[in-house]
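Researcher: Please translate sequence to C-alpha cells.
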Amino acid sequence: MALIIGQEAPGFTLYDTDKNKVSLEDYKGKNVLLLFFPLAFTSVCTAELCSIRDNIAFYNGTDAVVFGISVDSLFTLKKFKDEQGLNFALLSDFNRTVTKAYDALYEIFPAFEMEGVGKRAAYVIDKNGAIQYQEICASPGDLPNFNNIQAILSSLK
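Model: Translation complete:
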C-alpha cells in the first residue's frame, strides 16, 4: 500500500552500526530524513551518502536527523560508514521489514537479478511523525532531488 503525504510514518526499530537499537519513535520532536539506498560500496550510493556527509551542517541546522537505511548487514554498513567518514547513522534493515513498509523494495534488482534489494528513496518526516516528502527513484542510478528535500526541511524549521 502506497504511503501518502501527511500520514503518520510507519514506525520501526533497527540496529545501527554501533549495534544500538534505533526507533523512529525516539525522534518525535525532530525532523527526520530517511534515505533508503540499495547497497553499500556502490558508486551511486557512495556519492549520495557522501553528499549528505559534506552538507550535514544544513541538515543539523533544520533540526533534522539523517538516517541511511540499507538491507546490508550492520557489519557491512559499519565498514562502509568508517571508510567514507559518514557523520550520520546507518541502519541495517537486513530483514527488509522497514524497506517494505516504505514501499522501497525491489522484487528483482535491475542489476544482476538480485532479489530483495532496497530502492533508492527519500522520506522527510516532520516533528509530529507525519510524512512531508517522499521520493522513490525510478532507477537505482538516480538520486533523490536534494533541492526539494532541503526546501521541505527548511520549511519545517
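Researcher: Any highlights?
Model: Residues 37 and 45 are 6 Å apart (CA to CA).
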